[in-house]
Structure formats: structure tokens, C-alpha cells
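Lecture 7 notes: from sequence to structure.
We start with the chain below.
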Amino acid sequence: MQTEKNRKYNNLSPEIWILNRNGLQRCDGGKPVCGQCVRYNRRDDCEFNDGPSPSNSRVLEQNIARLQARIHELEQDDPTLIRLQAPYVEAASPALHDQTNWWETPELPTNIVKTLLDSFVPHGFKFGFFLDMPRFLVSLSSTDNATPKIPDVLRNTVYLLGIHFSKSGAFMAHESVFLDKTLRCVHYALSVAQEQQTTTLYVLQAEILLAYYFYHNNRLVEGKFHASAAVSLAMLCKLHKTHSYGNIGVLPITSAWLSPSNDAVEADERTRGWWQTYVLDKSWAVALVESSSIIEENDDPATVVDTPWPEINNNVSISQRLLVTRLMLILLPQTATVRASGGRTLQVFFEGTSGDTNISTFGLHAQAVALYERASKLSSYQDRSW
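Predicted C-alpha cells for the same chain:
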């Protein structure tokens, strides 16, 4: 049974109370502005509530009805609906549509390859890519038997980095699959490197890319492992002994790993390959406060770097540069100690007597790294002298 007080309040019509300097007062319901708001000069603040507020259960019912309507809308495949998405989340690549387990196929679909290459190419140089990019892309996509085929070890490494740089969840979900596949390929390639010398430069490229990949992901032990493997390969191939004749790279004839360059482009690749290895080794040795794997000793000619700095390509045609290569290979005796462009590249540079004026931007970068490593070494000597 309701009390007399409850019956009194239930019989009241809906009313609004306002708070002012005189306390809580009842609104008289005048329109367009109630008397209280006129009296206290609050015309702009006057608002009306034509009925009682809905109960909590009614509010919940309205929310449930709204959510059910939204669910029904999402379940409908209506092409006229405008779908909203998070502005900073990349949508799944259209290359993935209608592809079933593309990551398990021996040869990736063409559209997948294109998408991964589009992600890799802008970042390749920063991760130590030294091969000629236009030639590499042609070889990677060519079906012509006359075009040299890119071995799986480098192909999978590039795909791995393409997945990593894509920042697409649909691709990155399979990054570990490609990492395992790449590491297996590297292990096999190193085990047969002496029998398959034509792929050695590709294996070196894969090792450099992997070292940067692991360093980038803060996996330092694995990064150092692959960086050391890259240095070993480069030294074994005597890339630090590549000489320059008219911008043609010529390896010592005593080298048992690499045959002479076929053209100027391949010669430039070998020069850049050495200096990319050098930059990787020296810069990360300083960053990790560890000893460098590349050590040049004046009394050991085998360790002296004779490979010239990477140069800006000039207007000499490939055929002319190739002719120079062939002539030098014929004229040079096998036991000759050649000093093209002066040799002793690093020693001459540190002595300040180089005089090179045709060095490329990457060559200047390599020189900066050489100075950076030398300054760090001198600083460590000074610290120990205190």
C-alpha cells in the first residue's frame, strides 16, 4: 500500500527544478522562457523537458535494439552501404583475394610477387642491397631460359623483407614461414658454395640483407652471425682485392671463387658488394661496441683493401669497358701485384692523399663509416689511457 506522501508525488505533473542563488526552485513551465529564467536573466540557459526521463530498463532496451539493428546491417551484403574503417590501418591487399595458401606454393603468384617487390624496393638500399636493381627485377620476373635465374636463397630473402616492409597483417602473418624457408636456403647455399660459385654473389647479398633484418628486429646474435658470414664470403671471394681499370672491376686471377666480370654492371656490383659488407661490419661493430671482423694490417698484403670506392657511372659504354677488362686479363701476369687507381684504398684515404673526385654518394657513405669506426677506435684508446 502506498503512503499518503507517495500518492501525493505520483499525482504531480512532470515538473522541472532549477538551481540558482536562492536554492532549488520549481520551473513554472512558461514558454518560450520560464519565469524563473526571466527573473534571473538566464534566458539562454532555459531548456524544457516535456516528460519524465526514461527508466534505466527502457534505456537498455533502446541500446539493445540499436545494436541489433547494427548487427543486421553488417550481416547484409549490400554494395550500396558505405563501410567505415580505421584511417591508419592498412586494408588487406587486393593481391591476396582468391589466393589459396599462396605462401606454401613453390612459385609465388605473379601478383603476390609484384606486391612484395613494391614493398621491398624502396627499402632495399638501406638494408645493403648492392645488386643492379633493374637487372635484378628483370631476372626475377623473367621466364626466358637465357636470363640468369635468381636463386631461391636470394629470392626468398627478398620476399621475406617485402612481407616485413608491407606492414600488412595479411602478409605479416606468414613472415615466420618465409623466415624459416630463407634460413634453410641459406644453410644449403653455404654448404654447396664451392660447387656453385656462380651463385656466390647472390648468397652474399642474402646474408647482408638477413643481417640487417635481424639487427632491425633487435635480434643481435643472429644479426652478428649473418654479418660475420657475409664478411667471410666477401673475403673468400677476394672482393676487397677488386681492381679498377677504366671503371671495370677485375679480381685477382688467383681467386678460385669468382670468374671475371662479364660486363661493367657486374663489376660495379662486386665493388658495391664489398663496400656494403664493409659498411655493415664497421657500423654495427661500433654500435655494439665490439671488434670488427674486417681488419687491415699494413704488414699483411692479404688484408689490405685495394677495391676502389664506388664511383659515379660515366658515359663509357659497356662494350668499351668490357674490352678493357678482357685486355687487362690477357696482359696481366698471374703473379702480378696490381695497383689500379693506386690501390691501398683505405690507407690512402686515411693519409689524405686520395684525390678521388668521381666517388658516388654511396662511396661517400662508406668513407664516412670508415672515419666513424676509426674515431670510435681512437676514442676507446683515449678512454683506456686515463
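Points to note: The CA atoms of residues 124 and 209 lie 8 Å apart. The chain has two domains: 1-84, 112-385.
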